[in-house]
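Hello,

I think I submitted the adenosine-5'-diphosphate job twice by accident. Can you confirm which output corresponds to this input? Input:
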Amino acid sequence: GVLIEFRELSLIYPNGTEGLRNINIKINEGGEFVVIVGLSGAGKSTFIRSINRLVTPTNGALLVENEDILKLKGKDLRRLRTKIGMIFQSYNLVKRSTVIKNVISGRLGYTGTFKSILNIFSKEDKLLAYENLKRVNIEEKLYNRADELSGGQQQRVSIARVLTQKPKLILADEPVASLDPPTSHQVMKYLKQINQEDNITTIVNLHFIDMAME
Ligand code: ADP
Ligand code: ADP
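Support: Only one job matched these inputs. Its output is below.
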């Protein structure tokens, strides 16, 4: 079935800048891997951020699992966001926190901030976090602070965090824009691998320059 549908979707930012104009697209569930490529300012980030309502489109409809998400607020919005794993250009880890705590926090889902991380973890939490770190080959950094890792390592931790969330959908907003070509290649490889093994629909934004590196 259809997982996401944009219907004549437009977004104009409060200052009048056009972010999206009349977008119509359907993305199926069951492990599609969608790559959005375009020049800076084309609206790639606005497109991605509309899907978990980090930005709010101003016209049209945006359906996720047949529900128009433009009307959602409060706990309904949080419910939507728990289904969606988000990966950012700047990793968005809690820098002073350990790798394992960052990964376990994924089970809370994306809430906009990660302030409310409990310090008591169950054995199951730790085991799942460890298994997910292993999938991106970074398990040896378990007890390191996030800010002791290189960029590529931090992005792999953020992928492990998203896995802990068990999302239906992964949105990756310029995930390799801060990384060098070999590291970018490696991060893209992990995203594709997870997409194929777990059947998680994945949408990735890339600059033309990133594509050239693939
Ligand atoms: P891309 O990700 O392709 O670089 P964006 O989605 O970031 O493009 O931006 C699309 C357009 O919206 C650009 O003209 C950009 O300047 C503008 N834009 C993005 N974010 C904002 C914002 N918060 N306020 C106003 N304009 C914005
Ligand atoms: P990259 O070549 O990916 O940029 P870096 O040179 O940043 O990698 O890091 C190389 C190694 O040094 C990594 O294993 C990383 O974990 C470690 N490292 C980087 N910064 C720090 C730091 N501030 N404290 C401790 N270890 C660090």
